[in-house]
Amino acid sequence: MRFRKVGKTCQLRVETAEDLEAALSLDESLWVATSAPVSAFRCDPEFLALVDSDGGGRIHTRELKAAVRWLLGMLSDRSRLADGVDVVALNAIRSDTAEGASLVDSARFVLESQGAADAEAVSLEQVRAFTAGVKSRPLNGDGIVPPEAADEPETARFIQDALACTGGRDDSGGRMGIAEEDLARFMDAVGGYLDWRAAGEIPAGESVTEIMPLGAATPDAWNVYERHAAIVDAFFELCRAVRFDPRARSQVGWRAPDPEDLDPQATAAARSYLERMPLAEPTADALLPLDPEAVNPLYRSWLVELKAQVIRPILGETPERLSSSDWERLKAALATYGTYVRGKKGAEVEGLPAERLLEYRDGSQAQKVREMIAADAVVATMLKGVRQVERLLLYHENLMRLVNNFVSFPELYDPERRALFEVGSAVIDGRRFNFAVLVEDLAAHSAIVGASNIFTVYLKVSGAAGQDGYVVAMPATSGSRGNLALGKRGIFFDTQGVEHDARIVRIVENPISLSEAMVAPFVRMLGFVTGKIQKLYGAAQDNLEAQLEHGAAAIQRPAAETPAATAGGRAGMLIGIGVATAALGSALAYITQTFAELGLAKIALGLLGAVLVVMVPLVVLAAMKLGRQDLSALLEGCGWSINARMRLNRAQRRLFTRSAPYPKGAQGAPPPRWVAVLVRTVLVALALASAYWGARALVARWDLTTQEQTTETNPEGRDGGSGQQQSQPAQPTADGAAN
Question: Going by C-beta distance under 8 Å and a sequence separation of 6 or more, which residues neighbour residue 246?
Fold first, then answer.
């Protein structure tokens, strides 16, 4: 088991089959990641679906370990695993196990089908070409039989009828067909409908049956009766209410409408009124008049049909009024047929001709379809073995690389490669950002990244024609903020090299580099001073404009004013300007005198001390934040579970965010970056050295000058050792008095 230092973390080296096997025994706490969303990886989707064995949309350590165990268990020769190829030699597959032998047999079957029976290796391209060819066949192993799979037109017609009656389903080749369940449902419907239909038939030599009391006319009579039987039942119920309480007649709705309530032109309103009215006027004797003119106009034509097809055939006559007992006789006569109709079976096949249904009932066509389904199941078994060969080839090509993007991350720090979870790079503000991850939830991602101490830029990338755009997150790891701001545009290159428009939609601000942190206080100070100067300049400009307006007003005064007053105004202006000039000169003189008294050395040391007081805490704080920057937050915001802290060293910072160098030998190009850095470093060192030695020289000179002044003032020092200093002559003051 071998490890390497990647950035500031130790990661397992996975470069050989032995390294891949070692990952199985490595404790999960030493893996860089323990789970990740399937959508994070740019990889063959079928491969990712196989690794995600539970279909949960995430890859976990147990699933990755299971994939590694299966792959290593299927190979007798693992020498080409590190090459990441999708070709496996047949003799590299274990044949001493049942599963391995089945893989070899399936691989040979594919090669024979592809016309390469003598080949000693199978490729993913051959397997997928075979699978695509099988899917294009009518019997393709999906358990669904389309009409095209039939060898005889009668069988094809049977499948088509079953498909039309049951709805069928799509097969893997895009055709509609039926499965075993659809066939069983169709045959049940055929048998049920034919049995139901036979129960309603009238035997030869008879005119009526219990089910068909009116013979062949029974279905038509039932249809007429059923149409409005409920309205007749309602009429007799109302009659019983009126017989119980005559006052109920006024409440049942049988009364003339108010002429104001009906508009002759409002057809809908008139029909609505009739629909609310009963069949006829309810009476205590409960007799329904059969004269069409005496019933609700909505039911007159129906009453005519009822008399002709139901009442007369069953009662033997047509009375003038129908009693409730006669109505019950009609209902009883048709009750058996009603039960028969409501118990209909196989209604979905009712539209097929009866003779065709009888043909299908014997089961010969159904048996042919069952044989086709069985043949399709054989294809399914064969395809299952071929899919295992495809699994082997996909794992052989991709699994080691996936492990190197899960257990360890060597590709992330390799400038020549792209990790499987990277989505591209961006050029914006004169820099190239070389690490970008896809962001599905911008708010959630930025909340996690905010605590990572990494300056992060979110770009909205335009999609291809007809596709939606997407958002990516990129860390700024070197240089300074520059002109990065919301709305700034740039370009984004996906991993295929396709260029897209991009725009900054969010920024998470943090220190980017130590040099930026060092100049940050001066930038803020410059901004503060600039703002104050602009404010003072604005106030002075307003004052000057006011003075000019005042002077112009004085010049333009009417001639009635005396020349003396005008002269006085001009004199006042001149005096004011003189006073202002004198005040400014006095202030400058005071400042000059103050600096002179302090001395250049103390001024330089004071400024240097002030700068250090401001810079040192900020630089220390920035250095601490830069040291805690953790690139793993960008992945955790995308749904990863990360173990390792992905700290960055100086080289990695310049790997993820860099400014491209000018071509070698280009004329007019600025010097290389290292030259500029060297020159700046030398200048800063010289400036600090000059400031230090200059300060020391000024301090020494100040001390020497002070000693000379003391000697001139008291050339003999102390008086005879008495300990008392000689008195100095009094100095005259400005008014002639002695000090």
Answer: 284
